[in-house]
C-alpha cells in the first residue's frame, strides 16, 4: 500500500485537504488525533508527562492542561525534546499499527510537523499543502483569535516554508476556493491510484 505523508504549516488547510481525500475513500491517519488519545487520563504517556513536567500539567479531573503545556514548552527547546521523547515513539508505533491494518490502495498520514520530527521514514511520498506565509498569518489570526505577533511566533517555531517544500513529492497550492481545492485533490487521488498499479522498480 502506498503511504502518503500529508503536511503543511499552520493555517495551510491540511484538514480541508484530508477531508476531501476521505470523500474518495482514502483512509486518514491523523497524528494529532493519535497524540490526543495518548494523553487521555489513564494512559502511560500522561503519567510520564506529569512526572516530567509536574502535577500542574493536570487539571482537577486528571486531564492534561494542553494550553498550559503548550505554552510551557513553546519557548523551551529542552522541554519540547522531553515531551517529544515521550510522545513520538508511541505515535510512530500507533501509525505503523494503523497502516498494517489497512487494505486500501493508498492512505494518508497527516503529520503537521513532519519536517520537524523526521517522521518521513513512515511514508512513501510527501504531499505538502502550501500557502504564502501572509495567508497563514491571516488564517491563524482569524481561527485562533490571536494577534499578528502571536501568529508570527507560531510560524517561527515551525520549519520554514522552503524546508517543507524541499521534502515534497507533490505540492498542493491552497490559495483558491474549496472547488479549486477539490479539483486538485481529485487529480492527486487519480495520480496516487495510478502509482499503486505501476510495477515497482
Describe the structure.
- The chain is an alpha/beta fold and 201 residues long.
- It has two domains: 1-27 and 105-196, 3-Layer(aba) Sandwich (Rossmann fold), CATH 3.40.50; 32-101, 3-Layer(aba) Sandwich (Rossmann fold), CATH 3.40.50.300.
- Helix content is 57%, strand content 12%.
- It has ten helices and five strands; from the N terminus they run E-H-E-H-H-H-H-E-H-E-H-H-H-E-H.
- The protein has helices at residues 14-23, 31-38, 44-53, 66-74, 77-100, 114-117, 133-144, 148-157, 161-167, 178-197, and strands at 2-7, 28-30, 106-110, 125-130, 170-173.
- A five-stranded parallel sheet has the order 2-3-1-4-5, with helices on both faces.
- The mean pLDDT is 92.
Helices and strands, with pairings:
Layout: E1 2-7, H1 14-23, E2 28-30, H2 31-38, H3 44-53, H4 66-74, H5 77-100, E3 106-110, H6 114-117, E4 125-130, H7 133-144, H8 148-157, H9 161-167, E5 170-173, H10 178-197
Parallel strand pairs: 1-3, 1-4, 2-3, 4-5
Helix pairs in contact: 1-10, 2-5, 3-5, 7-8
Provide the β-strand percentage band: 5-15%
Measured distance between first and last alpha carbons: 15 Å
Number of domains: 2
Low-confidence stretches: none
Instruction: Tell me the strand order in the biggest sheet.
Output: 2-3-1-4-5
Output the structural class: alpha/beta
What is the level-2 CATH architecture name of the largest domain? 3-Layer(aba) Sandwich
What's the number of extended β-strand segments? 5
Amino acid at each position: 500500500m502506498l503511504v502518503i505523508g500529508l503536511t503543511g504549516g499552520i493555517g495551510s488547510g491540511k484538514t480541508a485537504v484530508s477531508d476531501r481525500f476521505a470523500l474518495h475513500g482514502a483512509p486518514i491517519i491523523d497524528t494529532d488525533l493519535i497524540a490526543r488519545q495518548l494523553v487521555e487520563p489513564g494512559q502511560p504517556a500522561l503519567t510520564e508527562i506529569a512526572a516530567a513536567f509536574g502535577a500542574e500539567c493536570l487539571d482537577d479531573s486528571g486531564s492534561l492542561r494542553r494550553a498550559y503545556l503548550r505554552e510551557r514548552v513553546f519557548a523551551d527547546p529542552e522541554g519540547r525534546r522531553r515531551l517529544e521523547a515521550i510522545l513520538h515513539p508511541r505515535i510512530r508505533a500507533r501509525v505503523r499499527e494503523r497502516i498494517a491494518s489497512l487494505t486500501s490502495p493508498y492512505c494518508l498520514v497527516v503529520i503537521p510537523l513532519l519536517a520537524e520530527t523526521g517522521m518521513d521514514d513512515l511514508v512513501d511520498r510527501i504531499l505538502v499543502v502550501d500557502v504564502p506565509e501572509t495567508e497563514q498569518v491571516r488564517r491563524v489570526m482569524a481561527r485562533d483569535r490571536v494577534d499578528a505577533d502571536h501568529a508570527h511566533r507560531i510560524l517561527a517555531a515551525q520549519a520554514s516554508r522552503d524546508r517543507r517544500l524541499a521534502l515534497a513529492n507533490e505540492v498542493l497550492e491552497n490559495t483558491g476556493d474549496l472547488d479549486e481545492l477539490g479539483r486538485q485533490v481529485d487529480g492527486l487521488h487519480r495520480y496516487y491510484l495510478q502509482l499503486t498499479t505501476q510495477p515497482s522498480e
